Amino acid sequence: MKEYRLTDWLPATKKEAELRGWSELDVILFSGDAYIDHPSFGAAVIGRTLEAEGLRVAIIPQPNWRDDLRDFKKLGRPRLFFGVSAGCMDSMVNKYTANKRLRSEDAYTPDGRADMRPEYPVIVYTRILKQLWQDVPVIAGGIEASMRRLTHYDYWQDCLRKSILYDSKADLLVYGMGEKPIIEIAHRFLENRTEIPHDIPQTAYLTDKVDIEDNDIQLFSHEECLKDKRKQATNFRRIEEESNKYAAARILQKTDDGTVVVNPPYPSMMQTELDHSFDLPYTRLPHPKYKDKRIPAYDMIKFSINIHRGCFGGCAFCTISAHQGKFIVSRSKESIVKEVKAVMELPDFKGYLSDLGGPSANMYMMKGKDEMLCRRCKRPSCIHPGICANLNTDHRPLLDIYHSVDSIKGIKKSFIGSGVRYDLLLHESKDGAINKTASEYMNELIIRHVSGRLKVAPEHTNKNVLDIMRKPSFDLFEAFKKIFDRINREQSLNQQLIPYFISSHPGCREEDMKELAIIIRRLNFRLEQVQDFTPTPMTMATEMWYTGYHPYTLKPVFSAKTQQEKLAQREFFFGYKTKEKGLSKKQSF
Hints:
Layout: H1 14-19, E1 27-31, H2 42-52, E2 57-61, H3 70-73, E3 81-85, H4 91-95, H5 121-132, E4 138-141, H6 143-147, E5 152-154, E6 159-161, H7 164-168, E7 172-174, H8 179-191, E8 203-207, E9 217-218, H9 222-227, H10 229-243, E10 251-255, E11 258-262, H11 271-278, H12 296-301, E12 304-306, E13 308-309, H13 320-324, E14 329-330, H14 333-343, E15 352-353, E16 355-357, H15 371-375, H16 396-406, E17 413-414, H17 422-426, H18 432-448, E18 453-459, H19 463-469, H20 474-490, E19 496-503, H21 510-522, E20 530-532, H22 540-547, H23 563-570, E21 576-580, E22 583-587
Parallel strand pairs: 1-2, 1-3, 3-4, 4-7, 9-10, 12-16, 15-17, 18-19, 19-20
Antiparallel strand pairs: 5-6, 7-8, 8-11, 10-11, 13-14, 21-22
Organism: termite gut metagenome
Keywords: 4Fe-4S, Iron, Iron-sulfur, Metal-binding, Ribonucleoprotein, Ribosomal protein, S-adenosyl-L-methionine, Transferase
Cofactor: [4Fe-4S] cluster
């Protein structure tokens, strides 16, 4: 077991900075999460990335915004800039349920305390920093800033809000995965500390004046969207199409008091760049200040390995592709094995990896066969409404990773905790070898890599609802379930298939939920992983829920909005109702 010193973590106090011999800091990061020095936590990734560039970086986790603001003062003024992130989740999703009730636990906080972050930390932290240090640039990043960079619907305030740049007054916003832009930002500030750079890819900023270029995408203004919901829906389509292009255009959106400029993103990372990010000297442990305190989110991932970034599923309710990108970037086998060996050094590791996956369990190394076709494509999904003929769905590289990891002495079992895309497994390719490997993958997955429960996400049973969700036919789930059950019988295994479902998704009516309940009862499932749809910023489902229109067709889409409508749908998860005039018959299952 490796022993650590306090200086193995990035400093969180002045004393810790002094232990490193630092009298001045270059960058100070503020995060709504606890500081866990692990590649799954954004503040640690950005901090370690900047450290690797030779900068002196500190992290202030969960600063107190309700006292005399000492947490915002204690490290003084950084030489270059402050960085601000709400954390790994949008703060409002973190704090509230789909019914807008306060959650009792915050998974990213010691002992799960629910009172350690404000609503909208990007706004709160940035305003405080601007109040205290007016001339120091503040860079906002993370999922909350990313998904709120343009006009967006806020479910908790039930209104259309301007870009978070307006309310926060941040000087620059980094969207998506931030390693490449933050390095360039730091280098620019090292060259010129008085000028905010406005030409860095994957950043957004607010300006009074902008020179419009020929290829710019000009969205409907915030005020136009307030007056006409169809314009907001149209805006979303244009934003999503640009984000799914190999080479995107610059996006502009005006308001009465300025223009938000969103620069195109960087190209997808190269494998060597992604390896570099994961190979940084993380301790993979919470900061020692949390000694003897439980951090639920850390408990979930401490023995897991992330093998790729990105997702080409394009699910209507999901932010992963919007934040990480549609194109898969996979780590090398060497980098993955190196991290596995680092996990094996952790104090309470017993030989079992909880996950060897990513945003999806089985997209590792998958990409277009002809990259030139991908460069011209703006489809939001490579697998809906059907699997693209240009997509290489070969599972052999993933099987090779499983075999390599399982062969390491000291690894007893590697489980797959990420969601499995069964549509990729059941796809009939023109390449017989790929089809054979998909079958081999299913066998190996079910026999060797299930901890007792295998997670999959059909989300619904109704074809129309599934089409709106951009999810495959439920027939494919049933086909996969038959394979799962057969292999379990043949191998004398007692494993469960755990399906995830959503109620009240746009397009879903009570009769669709009744259909779901009847089908699930026929399949003898006792549902556990179910949720009521929560509108979150910058997803297609949220735009449909708010505007009432499908962004790609502008046809009306029904959504259950009242608490009564939503509860009526959710109840079908735990029973089904046959409604007649004034009568309701309920049967448990």
